[in-house]
Amino acid sequence: MDLAALPEALKSRLIKLGLIRPFDLVLHLPLRYEDETHLYPMVDAPMGQPVLVEGTVESCEVQYKPRKQLVARVSDAGGSLNVRLLNFYPSVAKQLAVGKTVRLYGEIRRGFLGDEMVHPKIRAANEQSLNEALTPVYPTTAGLNQLQLAKLIRLALKHCDLRDTLPAGVLEPLSLPDFSSSVRLLHSPTPDIPHSLLTERTHPAWQRLKFDELLAQQLSLRTAHAARRERTAPVIAPEGELAAKLLASLPFALTGAQGKVLKEITHDLILPHPMQRLLQGDVGSGKTIVAALAACQAIEAGYQVALMAPTEILAEQHFNKLSAWFAPLGIKVVWLAGSLGAKAKRLAIEDAALGTAPLVVGTHAIFQASVTFAKLGLAIVDEQHRFGVAQRLALREKGGSPHQLMMSATPIPRTLAMSYYADLDVSVIDELPPGRTPIVTKLVSDARRDEIIQRIAAKVEEGRQVYWVCPLIEESEALQLQTAVDTHQQLTEELEGMVVGLVHGRMKTAEKAEVMAAFLRNEVQVLVATTVIEVGVDVPNASLMVIEHAERMGLSQLHQLRGRVGRGAHASLCVLLYTTPLGELAKSRLRVIYENTDGFEIARQDMEIRGPGELAGVRQSGVPMLRFADLEKDADLLEEARLVAEDLLAHHMPTALLHLDRWLPGREMLLKV
Ligand code: ADP
Ligand code: MG
Questions:
Q1: Distance, CA 250 to ligand 2 centroid (Å)?
Q2: Residue 586: CATH number of its domain
Q3: Which of 70, 166, 537, 641 could form a disulfide with 215 if both were Cys (CB 3.0 to 4.6 A apart)?
Q4: Closest ligand, as measured to the CA of 309
Q5: Using an 8 Å Cβ cutoff, are 168 and 177 in contact?
């Protein structure tokens, strides 16, 4: 089995999920299961839990009020229910054609017009007999459906070597089941296994996987730490005059929290080992100035600094801000991005290579092989979770072992960060600069969409600007795009005399930048966007944000989005539109975002509700993280893993390496990053 031979589009989606080797598929375990082994009569089907029913379509029509939706009536021998779809492909209407017998999987709820299923899974009934095993539901990404993923995983289970990495002598005293039967069971459990053991991950098969994962983390933590201490980095210990000058030129003073983290960074820079510090701070907490002051230290000591951001929009904002700060101090800031013309790019690359550019700001263009630095002392990476390990590694190859400062607004609770980010030191800015106007958050039912559109008109009349964020549709990127295009059209029609712009992930960088620039200049008053605007955009005049289908988004993501407003002096409002009826989980999650403004608190509660594996950013961090184990709940397993790790490193190195290779194949790379 060779994943490299798969079509490019499919491959890139797998990579997005971190699935690179066939073995990664083996370790891609279900988030939950659906029970399609049992068919319920509609009258007897329990409410509030997903069930499988089968019936004949009596009617099916597209309705337009309060918004476009497809409504079908389906009945079986004893009962009937409504099926409601808010986003749908035209092909669904064929599936739900009158007279067809369909199998529906979903939660039955009491709706306005009787019992209903919203967005059930729909299949033709005669397609297959009932399943024998529970249906796994895997974490996935846009454009990759469950069936495709399950098929690949089945193949991987067949082709991969599933033999145990751990010798019987290690396993037996732990009384854990063997690896092979554990993964097989978790990918396709029989219905007789109590559901709670699977969902709460207490089944012995889960215990085994968690133990293996914790063991790999322990092994890698120990080896990584030792490796970093062996590398040397420039000692950066200037007088601090440049930083003092920059500080004196600012119209504000640092907050206490900024001062504290700056001290931590300055202290790292004078050590002869490469700093690897993660600077965490909520959106708007002022990370940029801290990074700039750290850059001052390196520049004054005669070293170069590189600053990278994940998107061109964001990188350009940094460039503008840093140029404004540094130019008066006589320090040249060089811009390097993919969109730069050939000649300008050559000059920028030359400046970096000759050492004549003290500070280079740009996008991942900086990672390219053609870019080298004469004397790189400090590399700063903004929104670091957006960059992969390979890119961070490329950076290190740009000259020696520079100190690294990574910045992130993705709130990761401290305890979690310390274990997930294994060998990183963490600094937290836990205070916002004074004088911000708090953002008011409102939860509004989608049925009141018209009202919200009027509210937008009123805001624009006051001279303000508005973001409208379209829902994330996991199943289909194309559908997400369509929703954005539809909304853009609707708003353009209804908001007469106002300019409504549109940005989405499929647009070219230059096009996106153009729309953003027009929005910044207030030539566009309402910006319809997919979630591409999540990171870093700064338009202080925007004071209203509407987020559609808020119930589908991650809480940290909602929090980040919300942080795009409330940046100026105007009172700001964030409207979270949701679709009724809301499930219990969705309700409690929206309550969290409604009641809290602190990103860290939101992340903590989100983790409580959903488990850590789901936190945005954690997965992409590239450092050994825990997908399955829970540091608190599995404290006993962790303790055992710690002891076994010690033993393996001391006495069974080949076993330790074998185990690491299975769980953390990029480990050699990680050690260098
Ligand atoms: P983020 O942490 O989200 O990257 P920024 O660094 O972009 O935040 O800072 C947000 C805004 O706050 C910027 O306009 C910045 O100049 C301003 N700012 C930063 N620190 C302070 C401070 N101590 N007092 C007042 N304003 C500040
Ligand atoms: Mg920022």
A1: 17
A2: 3.40.50.300
A3: 641
A4: 2
A5: no
